[in-house]
Amino acid sequence: MSSVEDINGPVPDNLPSKEVVQDTSVPAVIQEAQLTGLRLVAVFTVLCLAVFLVALDNTIIATAIPRITDQFKALGDVGWYGSSYLLTTCMFQLVFGKLYGYFPVKLVFLTAILLFEIGSAVCGAAPTSDAFIIGRAIAGLGASGIFQGAMVIVAYSVEPRKRPMYNGIFGSIYGISSIIGPLLGGAFTSNVSWRWCFYINLPIGAAVVLILLFFLQLPTTVEAETSSSKTLVQHMDPLGILTFLPAIVCLLLALQWGGTTYSWSNGRIIALFVLAGILVIIFLIIQIKRQENAMIPTRIIRMRPIAFSSIFMVLFAGAYFTIVYYLPIWFQAIKGASAVNSGIMCLPLMLSMVIFSFVTGGGVTATGRPEPFFYFAAILSVVGAGLMTTFEVTTGHPNWIGYQVLLGSGVGMGIQLPIIAAQAALAAPDIPIGTAIVTFCQTFGGAIFVSVSQALFANRLRSGILDTVPAVRPDIVRQIGATNLDSVIDGGHMPAVKRVYNEALVSAWYLAVALFALSIVGAGGMSLRKKSVI
């Protein structure tokens, strides 16, 4: 077998049926579970609700943070409100991938929802900032298993050709939550209490659990039914987990703290990077030696659809989150919009994402070929992000609306494709870990490149202020926030400060353009496949 064929792995027209002979170390599905009728409608509806809650939790907190810091008198903890959630979400995605492969999917999914609910309850009732951070970490742990769990349930419950359509709906749900989140958070914070941003998860989550308990029936695995507890623990790759989790913690903390809390040359940041590198090397050695019992089996990651879907997802998601992170700031700092209004001004991006996510799911279902859509997504996104780098202080409505629509069309088309392609190329028992790998790449790409873009933005803002408006202190501009510039900057300096602020934001978007362009490498790898996989 040639090296290319080895990387490609099998290229099925459809997912293998249950008669395919599996390696004895891989969990084998006992039966196919095709949900139909009312049962399918009920299950898929509550899966959408579960995905919606997780997606909403990422955005609803944005408008609540000022009130939370006011109540806890803990402005210095703001970074941890997001970091604690991101850390546990990113850390445990691959762990949940193994859990879904070797334990009953229904049980693991309900456990993830329970953890998310506990975290939400702790956040809502938190008496101190520390308690709130702990609640965010617990919620992130649950969230790490919910989205990929919904994907796994669909993969086990729906025939392969229809999966892209359902996954497209999940993508639309993410877009809808991005629209609703800031508005709902602002409404709760202004009219009731910021605590309801988290309490709202409790009744909806309870309804999801009850409906799934009665309506969801999924195949189990031979391993889950016949293996001893000791064997199942070995399959979970405890050594891999013990090296992978601290490696992710060290890397993400270094990226979160570098250039903000500490300088990049600070000994703490250097030590975190070095320790992360050492742990990653140890983790890779463990994965190679453990083969099928590894957290990331080399057999799976060497398959072309998984390898190139992962490359595409890291780059594409990193670019998308870089745009999304700074676009509301541009509206607030440059156009003088409030936090809520800046969310409304982002609607062209989010609505086009929702529409094209749904349309692309249907298109892949109809054609059976996701590969061309990878190219369309990357090209549209590059053009849209490139046009956004032309933003100036005087940029008008037609431009910032039209460019958002173009970018949203590409992102909505592309953000779901790696999961669709990965699931289509895998045998049913491998779908959980394959899904986990791709969703991990999405979160990890966002975490890495948003941190890089923060460094680009901060450095450009500092140098621009010093060169253009030396009378204004750069640290004051950064600390005051996007909406309060006019409260500390003299009116005569405001036009120059806004120009520098605009240039700093655009410099972060250049990174997004480069990442979208590089994601074409992933698209190219997918296009080398010779047959439809759906």
TrEMBL record:
Q: Which Gene3D superfamilies does the record match to this protein?
A: MFS general substrate transporter like domains, Multidrug resistance protein D
Instruction: Give start-end ranges for the coiled-coil region(s).
Output: none
Family, according to the entry, reads as follows: Belongs to the major facilitator superfamily. TCR/Tet family.
Instruction: Show the CDD domains listed in the entry.
Output: MFS_Azr1_MDR_like (cd17502)
Quote the subcellular location field of this record: Membrane
Membrane topology classification: Multi-pass membrane protein
What residues form the membrane-spanning segments?
40-66, 78-100, 107-127, 133-156, 168-188, 200-218, 239-257, 269-286, 306-327, 339-361, 373-394, 400-421, 433-457, 508-528
GO MF entries: transmembrane transporter activity
What name does this protein carry?
Major facilitator superfamily (MFS) profile domain-containing protein
GO terms under cellular component: plasma membrane
Q: Which organism is it from?
A: Penicillium arizonense
- Keyword annotations from UniProtKB, A to Z: Membrane, Transmembrane, Transmembrane helix
Q: Major facilitator superfamily (MFS) profile domain location, by residue?
A: 43-531
